[in-house]
Amino acid sequence: MREKELEIVKDTVETLGFVLVDAFFQGGRRPSSLTVVIYRKDREVTSADCEQVSQVIGERLAVEVGFDYDYALVVESPGVDRKLKNLREVEIFLGKPVRLVVKNFQEYGLKDSVVLTKIERIEGTNLVFTYEGKSYAIPWERFNQVKLHFDIKEYLKEEE
């Protein structure tokens, strides 16, 4: 994504009270879509939030950079099972339930490669979490996958 467009997207998202998780173009020589992923720490992102952010970004891009060719502007929430792609994304979702898939899990004294937990903090490139009463600090590159985890049982308990 060009620097100017990214700055407009980031500024708009933050001004409206959201966190920019990701923004990217998809398509051929001329992008056919611009996808913007937003998040709020204090509540769920609604479709009305996405619509508002989309409208403001679209207007700003049209006015400030003449972004007027045909494209689809998609604004969405991260989803309940988003794969976290980098440490910046992990930092955004600290304290949220995650599903970790650990490479060579035995080296860390884990019984299984899959761990359901919450990342407490990041130290350097290590993800620090507690699992089955024990604290772990495992380097980012030692994970096959770090993904948000949606527990339907916990969700149903909250709804009662």
Task: Describe this structure as you would to a colleague.
Helices cover 29% and strands 36% of the residues. The protein is α+β, with helices and mostly antiparallel strands and 160 residues long. It has two domains: 74 residues, GMP Synthetase, Chain A, domain 3 (2-Layer Sandwich), CATH 3.30.300; 73 residues, SH3 type barrels. The strands form two sheets. It has a five-stranded antiparallel sheet with strand order 7-6-5-4-8. Strand 1 and strand 2 form a beta hairpin. Helix 1 packs across helix 2.
Compose a concise summary of this entry.
This protein is an alpha+beta fold and 160 residues long. The chain contains 4 helices and 8 strands.
Number of domains: 2
CATH class of the largest domain: Alpha Beta
Globally, the shape reads elongated
Helix content percent band? 25-40%
What are the key terms here?
160 residues; GMP Synthetase, Chain A, domain 3; SH3 type barrels; 4 helices; 8 strands
Task: Summarize the topology.
Elements: H1 3-15, E1 19-27, E2 31-39, H2 47-65, E3 72-76, H3 87-92, E4 97-102, E5 114-123, E6 126-131, E7 134-139, E8 143-148, H4 152-159
Parallel strand pairs: 2-3
Antiparallel strand pairs: 1-2, 4-5, 4-8, 5-6, 6-7
